[in-house]
Amino acid sequence: MNKLKLMAIVGVMSAALLLNGCGAQKDAPKENTKQAEQKQEDKKEDNNATEKTEDKKEEVSLSDWAGEWNNMGSYLEKPEVQGAFKTLAKKENIDEKKAKADYLEKRKCEFNGLKIEGNKITFTSKIPSENGDKIAETEYKFVEKKAVKHGSHMLEWDVFEAVDSNAKYKVLLMMPIHGEEELTHFHMRYGNDKDELFAKEGWFPTFVKPNTTDKQIIGEIEE
């Protein structure tokens, strides 16, 4: 009798273990599925982040600067703005002649007009409204966005390279358009070596909208 009881107990325990085992096996796929879903979700988030980064890169194009632009330097010899150099000289505690010479050097540029259409730029000898000679016409592609330290400030440049390796200006550094509340303008640099352009100190060719007034130019000089 005791032997029969013992066999019954062993049978019950075996059945319990078997059921638990089945239950564990049944739950295991659920656990694995959850882990797989989480991995898939993480991968999706990583892909989304990558796509956002790529989209941000693709967002930058010359069309952001589309239109006609005047070289600010073309305004700097106008009689109407000469008083601004006197104010600048007092502000910097130097004589007026030096103040003007330094400012002209900072804005120095080989061309006075830009016409930007799509990925193409036409560089002209005069501001666009004066129909000057065409210096160059080049198609550019966006390469990178780079922050560079200039003095105590970090400046962000968008770098463009000419599609044609024989272009007159193989590399352009462009800053975003800003100053809309006072003087809509942007700074740029041009040349053939981007590292040399990044390294230049105090050189900021500047382009303004064709409807810019002398008063706005004066305000920019005196700033």
Report on this structure.
- This protein starts with a helix and ends with a helix.
- By secondary structure, the protein is of the alpha+beta class.
- It has an eight-stranded antiparallel beta barrel.
- The chain contains five helices and eight strands; from the N terminus they run αβααββββββαβα.
- Helix content is 42%, strand content 25%.
- It has helices spanning 2-59, 83-92, 96-106, 194-199, 214-222; strands spanning 67-71, 113-117, 120-124, 134-150, 153-162, 171-174, 185-191, 206-208.
- It has a single domain (62-222), classed as Beta Barrel (Lipocalin).
- Residues 1-34 and 42-56 have low confidence and may be disordered.
- α2 crosses α3 and α2 runs parallel beside α5.
Quick summary:
By secondary structure, this protein is an alpha+beta fold. The protein has helices at 2-59, 83-92, 96-106, 194-199, 214-222, and strands spanning 67-71, 113-117, 120-124, 134-150, 153-162, 171-174, 185-191, 206-208.
Helix proportion: 40-55%
Envelope shape: globular
In CATH, the homologous superfamily goes by the name Calycin beta-barrel core domain
Q: What is the average per-residue confidence, as pLDDT, rounded to a whole number?
A: 83
Name of the level-1 CATH class: Mainly Beta
Strand content: 25-35%
* Series of secondary-structure elements, N-terminal to C-terminal: HEHHEEEEEEHEH
The residue ranges in which pLDDT falls below 50 over 5 or more consecutive positions are 1-34, 42-56
